[in-house]
Amino acid sequence: MNLQEAIAELTAKFKKKISYADIAAALDVTRQYANQIKDRELSNEQIKKLDKYFNTDLTIVNLNELPADPNDCVNIPVLGEVSASMGYGVTVYNEVQTAVYPISRKLALDLGLNVHDSEIIFAQGDSMMPTIDGGDSLLVDHARKEIYDGKIYCVRIDGQLYAKRLQKIPPDRVLIVSDNPKYRSFEIDLKENKDFDFEVIGEIRWWGRVSR
């Protein structure tokens, strides 16, 4: 578990943003240092400090502590009727779980996946080609809502779901980017448009397709 993953799990648990200032206080380091180590694996001692400060137990979902049996799997819910558009948007009418998809615990660990808050949905359209094709499976981690430049997210914009790259433009704007050059990027000013329907549903940690 690295620091970014710990922050995502704490944010999901407490339903509020956990800042690097909070992390710095918990680890008894400077905020600058906390930001510098965000991609590093946390030591057991650092995890214990976070647990004590936030009165939680991150070790419960620390996959490094679980058995390394290659046949050990976790089940990810599949929402067969949910699609994220890679074009002009998809309105979702049915969010019922239709299946489960077992993935190896090792893969979940490699992806830094929050296995208790992830789902598989499907791509529709061509705006993220050649990276993602229509029909691809998308593994969405709902605990990862903080925007990191260049990563791909499932987002809701004006009532419709999209799969897009995001770039945060301080202080309050978000750039919505398509990999397919025929689709223009656009910005959303969250401060100016406070009532506009925009939400990061989660980061798309993995996608895949049947070979054609």
Shape: globular
Going across the major beta sheet, what is the strand order? 2-1-3-4-9-5-6-7-8
Number of β-strand runs: 9
Order of helix and strand elements from N to C terminus: HHHHEEHEEEEEEE
Would you identify the CATH architecture of the largest domain? Ribbon
Binned strand content: 25-35%
| CATH fold description of the largest domain | Umud Fragment, subunit A
Give the CATH H-level superfamily of the largest domain: Umud Fragment, subunit A
Question: Could you explain the architecture of this structure?
Answer:
The structure is a single chain. This protein is of the alpha+beta class. The chain has two domains: 3-65, 434 Repressor (Amino-terminal Domain) (Orthogonal Bundle), CATH 1.10.260; 73-208, Umud Fragment, subunit A. It contains five helices and nine strands. The protein has helices at residues 3-14, 20-27, 31-36, 44-54, 105-111, and strands at residues 73-86, 99-104, 118-125, 137-141, 152-157, 160-169, 173-177, 186-189, 198-208. The longest helix has 12 residues, at 3-14.
